[in-house]
UniProtKB/TrEMBL annotation:
The chain crosses the membrane at residues 6-23, 39-57, 93-117, 150-170, 223-241, 248-267, 279-301. The keyword Cell membrane applies. It comes from Anolis carolinensis (Green anole). This is Phospholipid phosphatase-related protein type 5. One of its GO terms (cellular component) is plasma membrane. Belongs to the PA-phosphatase related phosphoesterase family. InterPro entries: PAP-like, PAP2/HPO, PAP2/HPO_sf. One of its GO terms (biological process) is phospholipid dephosphorylation. One of its GO terms (molecular function) is phosphatidate phosphatase activity. Keywords: Cell membrane, Membrane, Transmembrane, Transmembrane helix. Its main location: membrane. It comes from the Eukaryota. The keyword Metal-binding does not apply. It is found in: Cell membrane.
């Protein structure tokens, strides 16, 4: 099964390579837009590929799940079945709606407030501008920053989903309630001892769809998505909100978001839907992707430096080093003479 998953991933990469070749042939004579436009087009292609890969993981059988075995009467997988995901205290619809809606709303409101404050303080001329199609066409700073931050956040959501699905497909880790859904016939399987290991998908006699979902728990998708959204939003609030009187308001709001994310993971364990290891791995995936995107991609939500600052720094870097001749101190000369007399 693991080889089938790798073959599926390789096949998807080949499809992306063919799309890239067709895209290059279509613009063989040159791109009809400047270099800035080329960068935007490349980002759109990457985003489309990410969304496509997430779709293949979620809604198709392109990547086969690894079938992991289990021991007879293994206590780690004998928890009661908690019911469908819709009966959870944090159902998927609520989690996905909050993860997709709350950061979008907060970023739009925050960027609008920052833009209005800059307009009120007449700091509009110092705002960053991005060249789009020519020397005279610019995107409004409010639109540019909002689209940039929301686009990176959306990319991170799909990337988190891809990382989680890839881990679930490759590992095939079993849920705590797996045996309640698998319903193995221990007599037919010859389970005379607890140490006997059972392999093969034919060992289960329950609902195949529920069994397949019970084989995809590591890492926890709910834990990863919730902590990714909370970390991204908390870092946005910390780096963007600079108003007076928010020294305690910002930490309280950020800690509240992180607490809700951690409670989501704890709820998964309490309802016997995931192991502790699944939740911790999901937390690691979510927070790692969020921190990487914020620090390395959007530069802690700071604006780009103006062009004159870049040119000034480049000129300083290109300046030749000036060698200053060494002047011998009279004290140093007397010290050397005295040392020679002693020796």
């Amino acid at each position: 099964m693991l080889s089938h998953s790798l073959v599926g991933i390789i096949h998807f990469c080949c499809v992306l390579f063919q799309l890239r070749r067709r895209f290059s042939k279509a613009f063989k004579g040159g791109f009809p837009f400047p270099k800035k436009g080329r960068g935007i087009s490349l980002e759109m292609v990457i985003m489309a590929g990410t969304v496509m890969l997430a779709y293949y993981f979620e809604y198709t059988d392109t990547f086969a799940v690894n079938v992991q075995g289990f021991f007879c009467y293994e206590s780690a997988y004998r928890k009661p079945y908690p019911g469908p995901e819709e009966r959870s205290a944090v159902p998927p619809v609520l989690l996905y709606s909050l993860a997709a809606g709350v950061p979008v709303l907060v970023i739009i409101v925050g960027e609008t407030a920052v833009f209005c404050l800059q307009m009120a303080t007449r700091d509009f001329e110092n705002q960053e501008k991005t060249l789009l199609t020519g020397d005279c066409c610019y995107i409004n700073p409010l639109v540019r920053r909002t689209v940039r931050f929301l686009g990176i956040y959306a990319f991170g959501l799909f990337a988190t989903d891809i990382f989680v699905n890839a881990g679930q497909v490759v590992t095939g880790n079993l849920a705590p309630h797996f045996l309640a859904l698998c319903k193995p016939n221990y007599t037919a399987l010859g389970c005379q001892q607890f140490t006997q290991f059972i392999t093969g998908a034919e060992a289960c006699s329950g609902n195949p769809d529920l069994i397949m979902k019970a084989r995809k728990t590591f890492p926890s998708k709910e834990a990863a998505l919730s902590l990714y959204a909370a970390t991204y939003l908390a870092m946005y609030i910390t780096n963007t909100v600079k108003a007076r009187g928010t020294r305690l308001a910002k930490p309280v709001l950020c800690f509240s978001l992180m607490c809700l994310a951690f409670l989501t993971g704890i709820n998964r364990v309490a309802e016997y839907r995931n192991h502790w290891s699944d939740v911790i791995a999901g937390f690691v995936v979510g927070i790692s992707i969020a921190v990487f995107l914020v620090v390395c991609v959007v530069n802690n939500f700071r604006g780009r430096q103006p062009e004159h600052e870049h040119s000034h720094m480049d000129n300083l870097a290109q300046m030749p080093m000036i060698s200053i001749p060494r002047v011998e101190s009279p004290l140093e000369k007397n010290h050397i003479t005295a040392f020679a007399e002693v020796t």
